[in-house]
Amino acid sequence: MSNIVNYLVERYIRDTLPKNTDLLKEMEEFAFENHVPIIQPEVAKLLEVITKINRTKSILEIGTAIGYSAIILTNAMEDGKLVSIEKRSDMVEIATNNIHKAGLSEKIKIIEGSAEYILPALNEEFDLIFLDAAKGQYMSFFSASINLLKKGGVLVSDNVLYKGMVASNEYVVRRKRTIVKRMRTYLDYIMNHPHLTTSILPIGDGVAISYKD
């Protein structure tokens, strides 16, 4: 159980979702077997909906992992491209292979390296930014990427409730205190940002959706 919502509610929501087949199913099994974090099914469906509603044509993803969310986001665009940043070379190799299998190599570009150095060097704007990297660095990633988000664009921040620890000290593990403190600071900041309208949703591990005015 995630400590975000009641287990029965969580299970019901996931049971209502269509199950993936072929490549995405293989990726889910790989992630489970190798303890690689990927977006939860209900979050994946939310990303699809947001991408379609916003008629998204360009996406910046911070945190590629095995390429699971990159493939889902790109498939949700009618005609668009995605740039994804990943610092682990082993993940870049796996993600590149998965993206090739999905037939999306022409639409997805992976940049290997630390986001804190790569983001300031980017000179294009995006309709949607998906933040799904090191939780303790969200403020830094935000500061380096918010100017890359178009006016009217959407920022989606994943894992913002962090197994419920952000919402209640009752769940906080001692070694996670710093991450929790930083995430609370991040959420407080984007909730009160003068150019963002933000809502926090208790699905998956917690998702914040921010609209840039």
Automatic annotation (TrEMBL):
It catalyses: 5-hydroxyuridine(34) in tRNA + S-adenosyl-L-methionine = 5-methoxyuridine(34) in tRNA + S-adenosyl-L-homocysteine + H(+). InterPro entries: Cation-dep_OMT, SAM-dependent_MTases_sf, SAM_O-MeTrfase, TrmR_methyltr. Pfam families: Methyltransf_3 (PF01596). GO terms for biological process: tRNA methylation. Mg(2+) binds at D132, D158, N159. Its EC number is 2.1.1.-. S-adenosyl-L-methionine binds at I39, S69, E86, D132. It comes from the Bacteria. Transmembrane segments: none annotated. PANTHER family: CAFFEOYL-COA O-METHYLTRANSFERASE 3-RELATED, O-METHYLTRANSFERASE-RELATED. This is tRNA 5-hydroxyuridine methyltransferase. The lineage of its organism: Bacteria, Bacillati, Bacillota, Clostridia, Eubacteriales.
